[in-house]
Structure formats: C-alpha cells, structure tokens
Amino acid sequence: MELTSTWYLVLAAILFAIGTVGLLVRRNPLVMFMCVELMLNAVNLTFVTFGAELNDIGGEISVFFVLVVAAAEVVVGLAIIVAIMRRRSGTTADDISVLRG
Amino acid sequence: MMPLAQIAQISFSDKLETPSVDWAGLSPLLVMAATPLFFLTIWSLASPWLPKRTPSIVAALAGIGTIVAAAIQWAQLDGDGTTTLANAFGIDGFSLLLTMLIAVAVTLTSIFAWDYLEREDINSAEFFVLLMLSASGGIVMTGANDLIVLFLGLEVLSIAVYILAAAHLRRFESQEAGIKYFVLGAFASAFLLYGIALVYGATGSTNLGIIRDASAPGVLEDVGLLYGGMALLLVGFGFKIAAVPFHAWTPDVYHGAPSPVVSFMASAVKVGGFAALLRVFWATFGSLADDWAPMIFVLACLSMVLGTVVGIVQDNVKRMLAYSSISHAGFILVGAESATDTGLSAALYYLTAYTFIAIGSFAIISVASPRGDDATTIGDYRGLASRKPALAFGFTVLLLAQAGIPFTTGFLAKFKVIGAAVETESYVLGVIAMLAAVVGAFLYLRIMLAMYTGDDADDAVTGREPIPWSAALTIGITVAFTLFFGIFADPLIDLVNDASPPVLQAAG
C-alpha cells in the first residue's frame, strides 16, 4: 500500500479534530493549551504535505513561522495561568467563572 | 560533496537576491513597531531620571507620528497603490486609512490610560509598550498581501492584547478575562491557520494576488479545498471581530479587562480583524462573492439580532457595550456582505465612526468608576448627570451615536451600510438591520435613563471622583469628532471614498 499525500492530509485533519474536541471537553487549562498545540501542529503537517505535493518551498517555510508564533503564544498563556494559579491553586476552567458567560 | 572552502566561497560570492524594500511606504509601520522597542531599552536604563508620565506621552506621540507618516504616504500614493517586500505588504488607501484608525486608537487610549493605571496602582511602561506593539501587528494586518504575513500580524496584535487583558493583577476578573481571551483567541488562530493551509493547498500560494487569480471562476477544477479554507478563514476572522456565533468571549472579556484595554480592543483589534476580512474576502475572493456572501449574511443577521436583544437584558454597562459592539460588528458585516464598492466604503465609514465612539465610551466608563474598576452596573450609573453633567452629556452623545441618531457619525454609518444592502437588493438584510437599529436604541436609552434619573441615589458610586484632564481630553476629542463629522459629514465621506479598494499584486 502506497502512502499518498491524502493519507497525511487525513491524519492532519484527524489530529486537528482531536485538538478541537479536546479543547472543548477538557477542563484543565494546561491540557487545553496542549490541545491548541495539537491543532497548530496538525496545520503544520498540512502545510508540509501541500508543500511537498506542490513542490513549493513556501509550505515548509510557513511551518517555521507557525512554530515561532506557537512558542510565543505558550509563553504568554503559561504566564497568565501562573498568575491565576498563584491566587487559586488547582484551578480548572470551571472555577474561572466569576464573570457570567 | 563540495569542499568546505568552496561552499564558503559560494556563499560569499553569490550575493543573495533580496526583495526591494519601500522604506518610505513602510514608515507608518516602522514608527509604530520601532518606538516601543527603542523606548523600552531607554526606559529600563533611564527611568529614574524621566518624568513618570513619559511612557504615556511616548505612546501618544508614536500614534501621532504614525498618523502623520500614513498621511504623507497617502498624499504621495502612486495611483491606487503598490506592494513592497516581494508583494507581501500592500500600501494603498485602504491600508493607510485603517493604519490611521489603529494609530488613533493608540493615541487616544494611551492619553487616558496613564491616570487609570495610576489610580489602580498598576502603572508600568510595559502597558504602553504592549499597546504599541499590538498596534504594529494591527498595521501589518491592514496591509498584508500574503496570508502568512496576515497571520503574523494577527498574532502580534493578539498576543500583546492577551497580556493587556490580564494586566490588572489585583482583580481576578481581569485574569479570567485574560485566560478566556487567550484560550479562545488561540483556538480561533488555529482555525484561521488551517484555513490558510487549505487555501495554500488549493491555489499553490499564500500570496493574495495569486490566490485571487487562481480562485477566479473556471481556473480551479476542484474547489472543495478552497471553499473549506474560506469557511475556516471566516471562523478565524469571526472570532477577532466578535461576530455571532463566535462572540462567546466578548462580554466576559470586555467586562473583566481593564477599561483602557477594552477601549483598545473595541477599536484597534476590531479594525485589524475587519481589515483582514475585507482584504481576504472582498478583494481576494471577490469573484466568489456569490458563495461567501451567504455565510456573511448569516453572521451579520445573527450578530445584529443577538447583540441587540441580549444586550438589552444585561444590567452591567460594560457588558451592554460588549453586546452592542457585537451588533456593530453585524452592521459592518452588512457592508461587507454586499461585495460592492459602496459596501466597502460603507464598512470603512462605519469602522471609522465606531473607532472614535468605542474609545470615548470606554474612556467614560474608566473614569466614572471609582478605584477598583468594579462599579459598572446600571444602578451605579444612577444620577451620574447630577454629579458630573459634562461626563453624562459626553456619554449621551456617544450612546446616541451608537443608536444611530442624526447629527452624529453613527447615523450616517448605519444609513450607508443599509443603503449598500438595499443597492444589492438584499432587502431582508436591510430590514433586519433597520429593526436591530430601532430595538438597539432601547439599550442605549436604558443607560441614559439611569444617568438622568435618581438624583438622590446616595448608594450610586460613579462619578464621585474628579476627572483627570487626560481622560477629559480623550473624551472631548471623541465627542467632538462624533458631533462635528455628524453635522459636516462631507470631509469624512471624501476621506473614506479616497481609501481606494485594496490593491493585490501577484508575485513574480
């Protein structure tokens, strides 16, 4: 059986879906971040696959930008989490509900 | 294998071909991006010897500098505009107008933010540095001619605002706002990015010009990927502009975040989001308007109806204005939905008017509340007019403008978007917009009624403290703008009409 690029695209779509569902159902802020990372990396896989299929370097280069942005996002997210945990340790997303929403 | 010496020789002798850079054209962006970086260095070395208010003044000057640079570029614009940096960044009337709006948001916000931060005892130079950096991301979004550049601009804009939303360290609400905005913002970015990847896969490029040519009818055999990408892009933009059903974060974040940050979010972040949406959908996918207009139609209807109806039953002024900002996003989408030149200039006019109205409204909320930034319920606003008549008058003008009353910029804004909908014969959308405008007026009347009744409300706490001159300046400018251009409308209309449609250039 030959692995065509479709396989990779389907895998990326599945990973993206897992990340989406995970973010919606998990309540631990750290796990929610990991789900966002999973979604971003699923996109990276899509970019690389398209880059290889189109024989275009643009797809691979996009991945580097995404990696940098993801790193910057995690730094900020963890800082906010730490600020919250210092006041209330063991916080889950359900506890962060002072504001009705 | 090449010998090492030979490799070194090649890399030195074959000069890398770099794209030409139009430094003058990029000057508005450079002012906004370089000022915070230089300033942070200087401030960390010399802060003991500088006046405490310096960061606020520097940010305001950076905003003014950006406006001036953008105005000069606009005056010198060659035809419709041009692109630079290997067609990654467009310099046209569209991007320069929205750049100016973002710079206005920086200037007006940073003028009144200092006294707020001082009152709440959370003042720091970083607040203003992040404000400027965020604005530079927004400016990148206004001119992005490449989806990856657009994504980078969006992230620079957003990441700085995540921090700003959580900036009030003593209020748990602020941190809650920060984390909610962060999680949903990152979620939305992932969708946007997946959309970019699919569009790239369908068209073979992230350059908007090439995408436009490739998405013209009949060029692509298989449009499934492109349509999937378009839908995901719309989800990503929908989050940033707070359109229903992607609005869930808006009331909580507007409620919890410090008021100056909300004023920046409601103005600059929204301008950035709409700049990207209009550039990608109106300009790039213009030939596919029959396919994406229905999606925008649904978003616009839901935003106007839900923002208005749910906003009326809130009892917190910040949340009411959050829902009203959702309904305003719906009105701007009405302009975008028509996919015509009239629709574009209507949407741009609405954005211009709303930027000033939003900044002024949240500046008033920030000074009306006493220390703590908590007293924002309707009950707290009772009798504000008897304690602070000028403040209540300013708020009244801005609320009437949001309701779309004549002699304010808000009236013409609503008139133009509805006119654009009628012109393209989307009467349903026009009627829904009119109904939403009428029902929405009740929302603003509730706040006004609270301010002008209940003179002897001893328990009402707003407006007990003197208003700092800086906030008075910001509020004065926004109210004057709203009234002046509401009565003498022509200069602003001409300016917006001059903001020619975005220019997209295919690479190569």
Care to describe what's here?
The complex is a heterodimer of chains A (101) and B (508). Chain A has a single domain (5-87), classed as Helix Hairpins, CATH 1.10.287. Helix content of chain A is 77%, strand content 0%. Chain A contains three helices and no strands. Chain A is elongated. Chain A starts with a helix and ends in a 14-residue tail after the last helix. Chain B has 508 residues and is mainly alpha-helical. Chain B has 20 helices and two strands. In chain B, helix 7 (172-203) packs antiparallel against helix 9 and helix 16 (389-403) packs across helix 19 (469-487). The longest helix of chain B has 32 residues, at 172-203. In chain B, 63% of the residues are buried. Chain A binds chain B through residues 9, 16, 19-20, 23, 29, 32-33, 36, 39-40, 42-43, 46-47, 49-50, 53-54, 56, 58-59, 61-62, 65-66, 69, 72-73, 76-77, 79-81, 83-84, 87-88, 93, 96-101, and chain B through 148, 151-152, 155, 159, 162-163, 166, 169, 172-173, 175-180, 182-183, 186-187, 189-190, 193-194, 196-198, 200-201, 204-206, 248-249, 251-252, 255-256.
Query: Span between N and C termini of chain A?
Result: 50 Å
What is the averaged pLDDT score of chain A?
A: 88
Query: What share of residues are in beta strands of chain B?
Result: under 5%
Approximate strand percentage of chain A: under 5%
Quick one: how many beta strands of chain B?
2
Q: How would a crystallographer describe the biggest sheet of chain A?
A: none
Architecture of chain A, CATH level 2? Orthogonal Bundle
Please give a handful of descriptors for the protein shown.
heterodimer, A: 101 residues, mainly alpha, Helix Hairpins, 3 helices, B: 508 residues, two-stranded antiparallel sheet, 20 helices, 2 strands, globular
